[in-house]
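[job 4417] fold queue: 2 targets
>>> target A
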Amino acid sequence: MESFGKRVIRDHMPQQHRDFYQQLPFVLAGFIQSQNDKSLQLDANIVPGDPLHDSLTLDRHLALLGIDLPSRRRNRLSAAITDVKKESFHLNVIQSFGNCSQYIQARQMIPYQHPHAPEKIEITTFNQEISKLMATSDTFFVASHYQENSAKQNSSTSMGADVSHRGGEPGFVRTDSDTTLTIPDYLGDFHVNTLGNFLVNPKAGLLFIDFDKGHILSLTGTVEILWESDELEYFDGAERLWQFHLEKGVFLKYALPFKWQFEGYSPTTEVTGSWPQSDQNKHNAQQQNNWQKCVVTKIVQESALVKSYYLQAQTGSLPRFKAGQFLTVKANINGKQQIRPYTLSSSPHDEFYRISVKYETKGVFSSFLHQHIKKGDELEFKFPAGEFHIETDSQRPALLLAAGIGITPMVSMAWHILQDAVRTRSMRQNIMFCATHNIEQRSFFNEINTLAAQSDGILRIIWVVSYPEDHAKEGDDYHVKGHISVELLQAILPIDDY
């Protein structure tokens, strides 16, 4: 990343960064001892009780994170303190760069006058109140710094402080003991500024905010990076783990003069996990071959012959699956146990399972589902299995071919491709051909078209209908009359390696 970093990490603030900072109502700061020298003035009051009060001296570097939660914009600065006044201080910019919006939860800030006086509590261990705050947090901030111990240590490129944002589902921070936290590291922008600093200097600062009550929890300690761990297998979205070991901290209660109203999770946050979910995934893996009970929560008529059944586990959460895998279901039909595998048509990131079943007049199980199963009924199932699934770590364009009820694994794959593209920012092209007998038997038409429309060109859909009805309009209801053939693929597909 060194050559890329030199293009995006600047020694000044471009105009859009200057405009960005001027409209922010707050910034987050981290600091180190240093000597260096470029310009930013902060007309700001430091939160009462914050250790930063005693650290605004001319021999320090300051790291700033400007973050606008409603728009999910953020920008990072490393700067030198050049002047300190009563209600402002001056900074010379050393490094400035923008960050992506991944894992930032949208919130709207609201001024608030607390009925309680601010309270400062110094800590060396996590108590129950603090552990609960961290366990329910979907956001925290982490400070790190780097200083090269060499003759060139006074250069701006060989030292600096940094503050970064971390976000995830509530429960993504785990308290292992009264001084240790374990935290997943998700796929980011590949700059690895924070982990890179930890590699050479494990000193770290963590800051949690209680967005409802205005509390601030500031922690100082050291970090250990867990590059490999058995727990990674069960934690969705984690690339690696890291542990924070507490040395000391400050809990500032009722410290902020505002609250935040939650507005929504980042799309990348929604495809990650939590520690309770990780524990459930591990438990599910141990129950892989056992029959479980599920409840039918919704039934949708997808086409003239196909119905979708939405399933929820009676207890716990459903284990993740790979797009393209099948679910084995069991039911007692006319006094006899019947077992069938049905491909899952839902996204691997959904909180439910969806099987979509074509009605066959002589089909024992499909007839039972279509004619007798209703919302609230129970079925038994075994966890998803199967080797037919799509890999998302390739950049080769993917060609998905679906005919009739064979569309079910392709719907799941299409969902997974696009949701994974949000997480990885992959621009891999995907082309999906969906063939049906006629318009009446066309399943998932609106769902797939909407998915393609929201894909920013990553997913293209071609509907192929063998015998379209007289009222069907080419271009609106389908694209091609006929069947999927080599000639059709050669006529539509760009020359490429699929």
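>>> target B
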Amino acid sequence: MQDIYSGAYVTIIALSGSSANDGLPRVGKNKNMFPQLSCRINGKRLVGLMPTLSQQIWRAPWGGRAWTLQEGLLSPRCIYISDHQLYFECNGIQACESLNDSNSWAHHLRLPSNMRAQGGWLASKVGDGCLRVPIDNPSHRMERYGSKLTLYSYRSMSHATYGLNAFSGILQFLATMYIKGFFFGLPIEDFQWGLLWRSQYPPTRRLGFPTWSWAGWEGGLWPAYSFDFTKPHEYPLHIRIWRAAECGDLASVFMSQHREIYKRDPVAKAALREPEGFDFDFSKYPNAEKDGYLFIEAIMLRFSPDYSRPLKYLPQSGQFATFVFALGRVRCHLRIMSVDSELDEHGGFEKQDFILLARDHNDGLIFHYLLLVSFDGNVARRRTVLELIVPVSRLSILQECEPAKRRVVLI
């Protein structure tokens, strides 16, 4: 799909059609059109504006189909034919028949923290949201990947098994920046961040994919970013991830070696110990290759999250709700990174298991990105994503979370 659409001179999109049999407005027998309204008042002619392309896309069936996203993002030029007017879009501009001079629905997707900072004049004109924008480069690959994932997650498909196929053309393009490719839709080079995707509202399970992949869930999603998305590996942790290979053995997916940066850090001490738990025995998991099992060796934390004390100036539920969380006598924060039915709003007394996948440092605080998992025997399933925020001067308190290097099979 990437080769087909990117190789086309122009792609014609039937924006208003509900099926392949509807035809194109103003072409052949299909005369259905909404006229542009106009009137004269006191000798002056007033003309109504037609809907913008963004408005048309979000209300049209085309804008809700998962398969069609790659048409709009991979094609060098698009002509959108709607029952209001025609729209033209290329790498630099968007134009239409009416007087409206709107911005592109895809060009202006960018992180608020990165407003025009990297691309200068060109970025201000075409934005960072479009796959074909000429300022794409490997240092921006996390942002490029994340914006496309969010757009795709809001679209639907008739068969759950198409969860990755309909995104494959976009992944083919992104492979120019992610040279090692993808595994179940997650980029190999930034795999630990890829595992930290979060939902914008409670998602529903999509069977046929592992729980750890966004492809296994239906609903609006956000990707995870480091504070500086051009340096996602600045604070590495001990993480080793393997997958099942055809030869009946394990193949490496992602490897990161912990580097001691902070003093009195219990996580650094845990990284020096031998891993706890069982050795990976591939023969015990006959469906591991087909079902995308991950064999992980990483630092795990174990504690009882407490959501009973929300910060007063932040919402008490929903995405990015932050709660005061005490470890010993140290005031820390616990932030919900996903709107997820897995979370008990009032917390509980039972300790839970978290895989520590990433760390970041900002304004004297250490952000610990945690994947909450639940165990069923020797295998674990993804539940949700949290942040544990600890003052850098009080990292020793993490000993309360029982950090240990453990082996986990994530399905």
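[job 4417] complete. Note on B: Confidence is low (pLDDT under 50) at residues 109-132.
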